[in-house]
């Protein structure tokens, strides 16, 4: 009687396989240890040399500001999170739509793609005050700034995925009379989804940066506003506390995108193993 595959695997080896959700935590262990060491050295160095808090606060002073100002920081983080979410979704839609149009219509693509590259080289920080002048201090200028910062990696990565579809499969579909739109929908777009997710991961980090830059240019709320206001008051612990909130917000959005990819873009997740 032949043994099943599970019979030939040592029991110890099966026991060592960690559940997938905990593998990331295990891999993050060295980074956590290094972060703790750096924070301890930071604290000790500033205390040793008696560096004033308005120059560079200690980690404990930053933690104190995080606790003391948490209601204000939470309200500001909610404002920034809304800007990031709206801008990110819109930039993903715009980027994916441009990539599909460029791949489907060759003449349109030859005209649009160079303009995309030229526009990407425009310094986005210079656009922030222009958008504020045109659209005021509300949500719109922040969303538009996020879109112009984040749409390009989405479009570029999806375009690479669309153009790298299996040429043999494309030729087979053409031989049976499939139209270009059918090839696009049945072969190219499904093939491009892992590349699209790679671009979306870049876009979500740029969206956080774009929201903060937009708030620097003109805002009355948000983490960028808190950073700018606290810096003018020399409240450096609050500045760093707001920076911590920005970083946590970016990490939260990034891993939300990763979860979405792992949960729904199954072949993209299998490709990484």
In short:
This protein is mainly α and 273 residues long. It is built from twelve helices and no strands.
Could you characterize the architecture of this molecule?
- It is a multi-pass membrane protein.
- Keywords: Cell membrane, Membrane, Transmembrane, Transmembrane helix, Transport.
- One of its GO terms (cellular component) is plasma membrane.
- This protein is an all-alpha fold and 273 residues long.
- The chain has one domain: MetI-like fold (Orthogonal Bundle).
- The chain has twelve helices and no strands.
- Helix 9 runs parallel beside helix 10 and helix 9 packs antiparallel against helix 11.
- The radius of gyration is 24 Å and the shape is elongated.
**Radius of gyration of CA atoms, rounded to a whole number:** 24 Å
State the total count of DSSP E strands. 0
Uncertain runs with pLDDT below 50, 5 residues or more? 1-19, 268-273
Secondary-structure content class = mainly alpha
Enumerate how many helices there are, as a single number.
12
- SSE order: HHHHHHHHHHHH
Beta fraction: under 5%
Percent in helix: over 70%
CATH superfamily: MetI-like
Mean pLDDT: 84
């Amino acid at each position: 009687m032949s043994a099943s595959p599970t019979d030939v695997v040592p029991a110890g080896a099966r026991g060592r396989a960690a559940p997938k959700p905990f593998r990331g935590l295990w891999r993050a262990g060295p980074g956590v240890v290094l972060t703790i060491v750096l924070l301890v050295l930071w604290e000790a160095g500033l205390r040793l040399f008696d560096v004033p808090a308005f120059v560079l606060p200690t980690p404990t002073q930053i933690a104190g500001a995080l606790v003391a100002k948490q209601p204000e920081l939470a309200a500001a983080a909610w404002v920034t999170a809304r800007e990031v979410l709206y801008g990110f979704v819109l930039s993903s839609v715009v980027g994916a739509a441009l990539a599909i149009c460029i791949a489907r219509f060759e003449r349109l693509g030859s005209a649009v793609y160079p303009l995309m590259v030229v526009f990407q080289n425009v310094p986005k920080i210079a656009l922030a005050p222009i958008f504020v002048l045109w659209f005021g201090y509300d949500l719109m200028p922040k969303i538009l700034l996020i879109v112009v910062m984040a749409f390009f990696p989405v479009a570029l990565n999806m375009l690479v995925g669309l153009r790298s579809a299996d040429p043999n499969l494309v030729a087979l579909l053409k031989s049976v009379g499939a139209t270009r739109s059918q090839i696009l929908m049945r072969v190219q777009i499904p093939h491009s989804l892992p590349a699209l997710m790679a671009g979306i991961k870049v876009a979500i980090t740029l969206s956080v940066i774009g929201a903060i830059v937009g708030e620097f240019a003109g805002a009355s709320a948000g983490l960028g506003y808190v950073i700018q206001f606290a810096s003018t008051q020399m409240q450096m612990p609050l500045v760093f506390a707001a920076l911590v909130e920005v970083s946590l917000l970016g990490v939260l959005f990034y891993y939300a995108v990763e979860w979405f990819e792992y949960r729904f873009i199954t072949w993209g997740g299998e490709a990484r193993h």
